[in-house]
């Protein structure tokens, strides 16, 4: 059986923790940023856990993680 290829777009967008959780950054970080409240800016700095409904799809894009 041939090796599976990692999806390079997914590799750059998602981070996998030691315990196996998949983390992501929020989108819309740069567009119209001055209007957004400070609370929203702070949320952009953090990594957030991926929704449980999307975990299976992302794991198929990152087979060896």
| Major sheet | 3 strands, antiparallel
Q: Based on DSSP secondary structure assignment, what is the total number of beta strands?
A: 3
Helicity range: 25-40%
Tell me the distance between the termini. 19 Å
Approximately how much beta-strand content do the residues carry? Answer: 5-15%
Structural class, please?
Answer: alpha+beta
On the 0-100 scale, what is the average pLDDT?
93
Spatial shape: elongated
**Unreliable sequence segments:** none
Rg on CA atoms, Å? 15 Å
Encode the helix/strand succession as letters. HEEHEH
- How many helices? The count is 3
Query: What is the strand arrangement across the widest sheet?
Result: 1-2-3
How would you describe this protein?
- This protein has about 60 residues and is α+β, with helices and mostly antiparallel strands.
- The chain is about 30% helix and about 10% strand.
- It is built from 3 helices and 3 strands.
- It has a 3-stranded antiparallel β-sheet.
- The mean pLDDT is about 95.
Ordered list of secondary-structure elements with their pairings:
Layout: H1 8-13, E1 14-16, E2 22-24, H2 38-45, E3 48-49, H3 55-61
Antiparallel strand pairs: 1-2, 2-3
Provide the descriptors you would attach to this structure in a database record.
65 residues; alpha+beta; 3-stranded antiparallel β-sheet; 3 strands; elongated
What's the quick description here?
The protein is of the alpha+beta class and 65 residues long. The chain is 32% helix and 12% strand. It is elongated, with a radius of gyration of 15 Å.
């Amino acid at each position: 059986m041939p090796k599976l290829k990692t999806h390079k777009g997914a590799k750059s967008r998602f981070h996998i923790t030691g315990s196996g959780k998949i983390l992501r950054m929020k989108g819309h970080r740069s567009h119209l940023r001055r209007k957004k409240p400070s609370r929203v800016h702070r949320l952009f700095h953090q990594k957030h856990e991926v929704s449980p409904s999307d975990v299976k799809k992302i794991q198929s894009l990152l087979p060896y993680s």
